[in-house]
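Page 37, continued from 36.
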């Protein structure tokens, strides 16, 4: 069942939206504040969020940023009483997928929900695809077959170490935070911590680096994460 999170502090409106969404067959959770919405998203893992901009305490933009950080793929429709163009632009910049100005007709919102779900369901993966083969100095790595050739010797990589390397290759030369690596490689598995990233980096270094204690390819970026040096 498609789950929708509604974050709206005006109770009548929130309950009206919920009733209509439920008639359409969606499973709906209502949160009356941003904090509640973020907490609720972690539990219900919604397929789409409808988010009011004018919320008490934490405003809609802050909630949107927090949701985006945790769930980059979550489709979000912003609700706002403010029709100014600047709000619309800011909403999209922060990562809203659609924007509905109050007062709105319930049918309009339902159609936008449907259209957005359709659009995001068929969207191709947005992550950059790394090449299948990577050369780091004299080391050659076949990402597809999880194979490393170093000094004429062949070793294999674990699936997660391969994914981790692919994530670093996709951002070669740039510092990638442990948090981003966790998200890209492990998704949202709450049981996995940044220690796991470090453990897999250690595995990669053992297999790729001539001297794992003094790495030349997978570099540590102090207090941040890692950076792949491809030369
Ligand atoms: Ca409001």
């Amino acid at each position: 069942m498609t789950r929708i999170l509604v974050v709206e502090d005006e109770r009548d409106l929130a309950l009206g939206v919920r009733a209509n969404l439920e008639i359409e067959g969606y499973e709906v959770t209502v949160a009356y504040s941003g904090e509640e919405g973020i907490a609720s998203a972690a539990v219900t893992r919604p397929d789409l969020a409808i988010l009011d901009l004018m919320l008490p305490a934490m405003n809609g933009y802050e909630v949107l940023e927090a949701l985006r950080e945790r769930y980059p793929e979550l489709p979000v429709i912003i609700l706002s009483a403010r029709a100014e163009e600047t709000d619309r632009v800011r909403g999209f910049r922060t990562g809203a997928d659609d924007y509905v100005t109050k007062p709105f007709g319930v049918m309009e919102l339902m159609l936008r929900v449907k259209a957005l779900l359709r659009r995001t369901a068929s969207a191709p993966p947005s992550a950059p695809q790394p090449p299948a083969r990577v050369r780091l100095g004299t080391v050659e790595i076949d990402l597809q077959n999880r194979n490393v050739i170093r000094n004429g010797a062949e070793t294999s990589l674990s699936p997660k170490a391969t994914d981790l390397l692919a994530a670093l290759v996709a951002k070669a030369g740039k510092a990638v935070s442990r948090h981003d690596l966790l998200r890209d490689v492990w998704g949202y598995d709450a049981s996995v911590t940044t220690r796991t990233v470090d453990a897999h980096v250690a595995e990669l270094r053992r297999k790729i680096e001539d001297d794992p204690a003094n790495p030349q390819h997978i570099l540590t970026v102090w207090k941040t994460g890692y950076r792949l040096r491809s030369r």
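Residues 31 and 40 are 7 Å apart (CA to CA). Flag for discussion at group meeting. The longest strand covers residues 3-7.
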